[in-house]
Design brief:
alpha/beta
Length: 235
């Protein structure tokens, strides 16, 4: 166990968590889809006081762990070789690799990738770039479509930026910029719409309060089902 690995006992269950301390005012607890628990605490706060906070939140932590555990095993590490499956807009495509001038096409259930260099690193970079280009176009079109559900609020078209985020699919800044994870393009369209509508709701209500969820319920009544589908598909 490394110095930043801690644990508490909650009934019969031992909750392991990684502890990071930095300049902040409160303790933040995150449960990730791989069932790891990350705790970020203020500088100078004793490990005993951190443990008290984690113990207080233990019922919620266990609930989150049980939720993510139902989706295991998670997607194995990618090897980027012929026959391996990769997802795009909810569908699985197998890699078919060719050596030659650079191109990527979707053909009859395959990602046909042609590159001068067929190393795993080159294939991964080419596929990452392709996903990002497709995400930029698809997300912008879906934002425009989703804005029609917010007519009475007269929302401006937000600035869109793509950013890989370790624990979320989207975020919204106070200035109105929406950040979306480029890997979200691998999810089915209805799940992408859920994330986008969620972030657009933040342009009206900043916090996850009753007003926020009331608006989300009105715009996208089946959002809980879409959220669960996203978490299951992209675990």
């Amino acid at each position: 166990m490394t110095d930043n690995q801690q644990y508490i006992q909650f009934g019969q269950r031992k909750i392991l968590y990684s502890l990071t301390q930095k300049a902040r005012k409160t303790v933040r607890i995150q449960v990730l889809p791989d069932s790891t628990v990350q705790v970020t605490a203020p500088l100078g706060l004793s490990t005993e006081d951190v443990a008290k906070t984690v113990r207080h939140k233990a019922p919620w932590i266990v609930k989150q762990l049980r939720f993510f555990e139902q989706f295991h095993p998670l997607t194995p590490p990618r090897l980027y070789r012929s026959g391996e499956t990769h997802r795009y807009l909810g569908r699985q495509y197998r890699l078919k690799l060719h050596q030659g001038e650079t191109s990527i096409r979707l053909v009859a259930g395959f990602f046909e990738i042609t590159l001068p260099d067929l190393t795993p690193e080159a294939i991964e970079q080419a596929l990452t770039d392709w996903y990002r280009q497709r995400a930029e176009v698809y997300f912008r079109r879906m934002i425009t479509n989703a804005l029609t559900h917010f007519g009475s609020y007269a929302l401006p078209v937000p600035e869109l930026k793509l950013r890989k985020m370790p624990t979320r699919w989207g975020s919204c800044t106070t200035s109105g910029t929406i950040y979306l994870h480029p890997d979200l393009i691998k999810a089915v369209g209805s799940c992408i719409e859920y994330v986008i509508v969620h972030e657009l709701c933040h342009l009206v209500h900043r916090h996850h309060n009753r007003d926020f969820y009331g608006l989300l319920d009105r715009v996208l009544p089946d959002w809980p089902r879409r959220k669960q589908t996203l978490e299951r598909m992209m675990a």
